[in-house]
Amino acid sequence: MRQKGHEYVLIIDFGGQYNQLIARRVRECSVYCEVISYKSITIEKIEELAPEGIIFTGGPQSVYGDDAPTIDAKIFEMGIPVLGICYGSQLMAHMLGGKVQTCQTSEYGKTQTYYDKSCVLFSGITEMSDEAISWMSHTDYISQLPEGFSSVAHTDNCPVAAMANYDRKLYAVQFHPEVNHTEHGLRMLDSFLKNVCGCKGDWTMGNYAQTAIKDIREKVGDGKVLLALSGGVDSSVLAALLSKAVGSQLTCIFVDHGFMRKNEGDEVEDAFKDWDVNFVRVNAKDRFMAKLNGVSDPETKRKLIGEEFIRVFEAEAKKIGKVDFLAQGTIYPDVIESGSGDAATIKSHHNVGGLPDYVDFKEIIEPLRMLFKDETRKLGQELGLSDTLVWRQPFPGPGLAIRIMGEITDEKLTILQDADFIFREEIAKAGLDRSIGQYFAVLTNNRSVGVMGDFRTYDYTLALRAVTTTDFMTADFARIPYEVLETCSSRIVNEVKNINRVVYDVTTKPPATIEWE
Questions:
Q1: Are 378 and 387 in contact (CB under 8 A)?
Q2: Which residues are CB-contacts of 245 (< 8 A; sequence separation ≥ 6)?
Q3: I need a surface site. Which of 49, 67, 97, 507 has the fewest CB within 10 A?
Q4: Which of 412, 410, 470, 469 shows the shortest CA–CA distance to 441?
Q5: Rounded-to-integer distance, Cα 502 and Cα 464, Å
Q6: d(C-alpha 119, C-alpha 138), whole Å
Q7: pTM above 0.85, yes or no
Q8: What is the DSSP letter of 507?
Q9: Which residues are known to be catalytic?
Q10: Each residue of 11-55: pLDDT tens digit?
Q11: 136 within 8 A of 175, measured Cβ to Cβ
Q12: Element (H, E) at 235
């Protein structure tokens, strides 16, 4: 949905693995964009949206296949600038009379690419030479240009690594400018947006905050709003936004299930003590521990915690009386991962479906629904939320319950809280807390022999996990300096009882997930 008063770029998804990343890069250029599946878009819808530009994503299929994703060819006659990426470039060539066929030599990964610097996509990048690395991922290639197009980049194996029709404002790149490995890729996207589409870049969190506050006030009027506040980044930023918009009409219910990180429940409560909201903290650890007594299976843990959360939330909400609106901290990756459009369902998010049915409300409001995580953090800063909450590490809904392998006990919970606190403290001291995407400790159910002083020990093994990622869809293990890991290990085994061994997880996602359970 086009945001009021903002420039808009439409990203048409043909099943590409980088569709979300393309959108994030466009937003980084201060231009609002939206990802819509090719199955859902029509010429009439495009006319309604009136985008300043259109981007075709990549995709896994061949454009000449019988079941290949396609689009109405009228899109090229609308006068709207179009940029095709990977499959999108081949689709443009194929539909406009060019030829696409299988490569004799496929290209994957970093590829030396030769550019025509006179092309508007590259001409403004003064620090870029005629040769640079691009990220390729294709087995088909454009073997014959459509009429009116010229090749503006090539590789040793791909004669059309980029093409342009300047008169029709149609551009295409075989490589992926949205991937960090493509040198100057973000600048290329920015050049398309600013120099071809004519965007000025009016998408800022300051502007968004003003618009969102105005829209919320208009929608809510004098109604009551209820928010389940988890203490995570998304719900905390939403609480701050709603506080600015409707103040005391908002009630935040913070269900503390007892599986928070060390001191975290108190930190969340303290962060909102001076905000103009009704803040309700429910200390429900005993209820949740009772439900999980003897439970080891991670999926069972998740379900039991989710169900009990609903019951506690239900009981507290009934005390408030009639509620007009239920607010949720849903963000754009939640929508995409939960199977929106053409995307496969990766995991079900608690914000997208599974709502309690007891609340009598007019409507669900989701003011963050079209924001990425980094934008949500920027919005939190814009609203004056404390850095403690804005830069809080991503944290699963079940909390430490799924970072304790096997059955949960009070002893294990204390062990993990103390060890995790030390790990996070040392990462912050080393200045790595904002460069690592996510980092945490996992208490395994394995015990091993150790020696402390003159005594034999038989205690738990603690695993440390830290990853770097741009989208949390894929992740690499963080290269934490050995001296930092050494300090973490030394402190943990010396300061935390019942741990005598610390290991570091060096597995990527895939094949592993970021969390252990």
A1: no
A2: 212, 213, 216, 217, 220
A3: 67
A4: 412
A5: 7
A6: 23
A7: no
A8: -
A9: 86, 176, 178
A10: 999 988 788 889 989 999 999 999 999 999 999 999 999 999 999
A11: yes
A12: helix 233-246
